[in-house]
Amino acid sequence: MRLTDYTDYSLRVLLYLAVRGDALSTIQDISQAYGISKNHLMKVVQQLAERGWVETVRGRNGGLRCAAHTHALTVGEVVRATESDFALVACLPDQQGQRRPCVISPQCRLRAALQAAGNAFLAELDRHTIGEVTQPKGALAALLGMDGAIPIVPVAAAAAPSA
């Protein structure tokens, strides 16, 4: 299973804002920290705000921050809200309960195994909250270039020959 970029970006935005705490951030800040297009993040942030997970402050000194309850959200809740389809194969029901017929359905045991695997995946994500996965905040803040911290360069990248 692969999560969509939309879900990936949603999780990244929530993690970034959770690390920042009550401090306001901009879409530009998040874009630069992750190297993601501002345009891609704008829709993500808008929808996270509509869900009440992100607070937006308008004006000259405005920005974004996590809503107070967002730290308690599970990763599974975010993934369920941002993914449109969890049917690993066509014979499993999609979000609308639709499934494609399959000739072996009456005797198929694979479908049940795949459905159980998908449920286990979401159950594992439900065990972790946004607040929990942002720990330790100091290390994440440094990697994201917050508060003047210098991002840590991976060893492989640091060892690359210079031109």
Stretches where pLDDT is under 50 for at least 5 consecutive residues are: 149-163
How far apart are the termini?
Answer: 39 Å
State the fourth-level CATH superfamily of the domain at 5-85 and 129-150: Winged helix-like DNA-binding domain superfamily/Winged helix DNA-binding domain
| CATH class category label of the domain at 5-85 and 129-150 | Mainly Alpha
What is the helix tally?
8
- Helix- and strand-based class? mainly alpha
Using the coordinates shown, work out and report the CATH topology of the domain at 5-85 and 129-150.
Answer: Arc Repressor Mutant, subunit A
Order of helices and strands: HHHEEHHHHH
Which strand-content bin applies to the residues? Answer: under 5%
Chain-averaged pLDDT? 84
**CATH architecture label of the domain at 5-85 and 129-150:** Orthogonal Bundle
What percent of the residues sit in helical stretches (DSSP H or I)? 40-55%
Strand order of the largest sheet: 1-2
Question: Per the principal axes of the C-alpha atoms, what is the gross shape?
Answer: elongated
From the alpha carbons, calculate the radius of gyration and give it in angstroms: 19 Å
Overview of this protein structure:
The chain has 163 residues and is mainly α. It has a domain at 5-85 and 129-150: Orthogonal Bundle (Arc Repressor Mutant, subunit A). The protein is 47% helix and 5% strand. It contains eight helices and two strands; from the N terminus they run αααββααααα. The chain has helices at residues 5-20, 27-34, 38-50, 75-82, 110-125, 130-133, 137-143, 155-158, and strands spanning 54-57, 63-66. The chain has a two-stranded antiparallel ribbon. A hairpin with a 5-residue loop joins strand 1 (54-57) and strand 2. The longest helix is centred in the N-terminal third of the chain and has 16 residues, at 5-20. It is elongated, with a radius of gyration of 19 Å. Mean pLDDT is 84; it is low at 149-163.
